[in-house]
Amino acid sequence: MENNILGLHHITAIADNARRNHHFYTKVLALRMVKKTVNFDDPGTYHFYYGDEQGSPGTILTFFPWEGIGAGRTGNGMATDIGYSVPGGSLDFWASRFKEFNIAQEEVKERFGEQFLSLRDPDGLNLDLIVPAHTDDRAPWVTGEVSNDVATRGFHSITLTVRKLDPTAAILTDILGYSLEAQEGNRYRFKTNTVENAAIVDILEDSEGRPGVNAAGTNHHVAFRVKDDNILMDYRERIARKGYNITPKIDRDYFYSLYFREPGGVLFELATDNPGFTRDEPLESLGSSLKLPKQYEPARARIEAVLPVL
Fold first, then answer.
1. Which of 73, 142, 181, 236 is most enclosed, with most CB atoms within 10 A?
2. Where are the domains of the chain?
3. 198 and 183 in contact (C-beta within 8 Å)?
């Protein structure tokens, strides 16, 4: 099993305002700030990582908060909804909490036999809090306001919205090892059996939908998890043989990555478990200080001067 895709590793999205984003995800949703660093290609922009205590794969939501970028538009060719797993009986707590913070939300609904609460973060990013059919025993990050019995456990699923189902589905089944589990209308649920959690990818087929526009409130890419960089490179060969343009291995400091765009337009990443987020700061102080890629360390003073104050 360890030689296969191990579900979701992380999801990366775009925000407009760093301080507002930080407040929502650490205060309202009560995730841990696992790492505070900068965009590899734009060091004047933060790169935030939110997750559980350790930043475990399958819990990590990351953001590029580009100040003033303006609102994007969800649509075809992108990941459109992020599903978080929450305990049974917790949705009333979350609905009340989001009302308290004036967060846009919908009524509780059901899909594939699971109750869920849909909301939008301050930039309009679509989030679903989902009570999974099985018991999710992952240990959550808890705060003084969000206790163990209601806290998020990590990812439940990601939704990809595309014009045509089959080309994207073939990537999931033929390369990444997912299987079609269920269908409701134009939503198709794919699941991997290599892990119990963060194991679901939904494809929403929307033949008439408009293309998405990447800016604040939209997802930038979805990363799938592999154990290490040897397995990563095995997948690179497999994907290249299928004729897809895939990047060389890239060192992202906390994991190694490959990127390719699937036929429906969604940017996919494969990311490793190694070396992890404790490579440059201890577990107890993760996310407490600004960590820079080594090539930017000589410019630390200049970078710190332009980054927004949180």
1. 236
2. 8-306
3. no
Contacts of 241 (CB under 8 A, 6+ apart): none
| SS3 sequence of 74-120 | CCECEEEEEEEECCCCCHHHHHHHHHHCCCCECCCEEECCEEEEEEE
Report the CATH fold assignment for 8-306.
Answer: 2,3-Dihydroxybiphenyl 1,2-Dioxygenase; domain 1 (3.10.180)
Cα–Cα distances (Å) from 243 to 164, 171, 267, in that order, read 19, 12, 16
Match 């033949």 to its residue by tokens.
Answer: 207
Answer whether 0.85 is exceeded by the pTM: yes
Q: If DSSP codes are grouped into helix, strand and coil, which group holds residue 256? A: strand
* Alpha-carbon gap, residue 303 to 115, rounded angstroms: 44
Burial 101-118 (b: 16+ CB within 10 A, else e): eebebeeeeebbebbbbb
User: Please, what's the largest Cα pairwise distance for the chain?
Assistant: 54
Question: In the numeric block, which tokens belong to residue 212?
Answer: 């998405």
256 C-beta neighbours (distance < 10 Å), count: 20
Determine contact, residues 153/163, Cβ cutoff 8 Å: no
Rounded Cα distance, 154 and 138, in Å: 8
